[in-house]
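thread: overnight batch results

M.L. [08:02]
morning all. the overnight job finished for the chain we discussed friday. pasting input first so we're all looking at the same thing
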Amino acid sequence: MSKVVIAGDASGTGTFTISAPNGNTDRTLVLPDEAGTVLTTAGVPASAMPAGSVLQVVQAVSTLSFSTSSTTYTATGHTASITPSSATSKVLVVYGGNWCIQAANTQVDVTARSNQGATNLGLGTFYSATASGFTCTTLGFTFLDSPATTSSLTYTIHAKEAGLSGTVNTGTEVKTLTLMEIAA
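M.L. [08:03]
and the structure it wrote out:
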């Protein structure tokens, strides 16, 4: 016959009470034949989630306008921050926004960078050889970052003019930057 043992924690000072609900039906609670954590109404702790689970989602919506003719990446002011719950977690970076170019042979490159370094994370690009006035399109990209930290991370959208000449810009249309912590 198997036994059920309730073991207290020697360093704890609280009292835990097991109580039955006010009911008229007999119930049987069958314990699983494996080690683990019993789920409660408090939810599943992030450490117990299987690999690939989404642990948290942060989204920053921006209507800031931005314009540049610089051929080096420039911060657009669109940022989002997330603090991973585990150093092994990944961060899925998803960006989408409307961008315009204002001259022929102009290209806009849009990327994200984290406060951990100047590495480009993902790339959205749009080129027009025949632009007359404004030519616009929706740019987006997705990138899975491996930051290896539990410190706060801030991701910033950067853009540059990567063609021969011209100006690239985004108006006040809605642009979204979504960060998802993914369990590893």
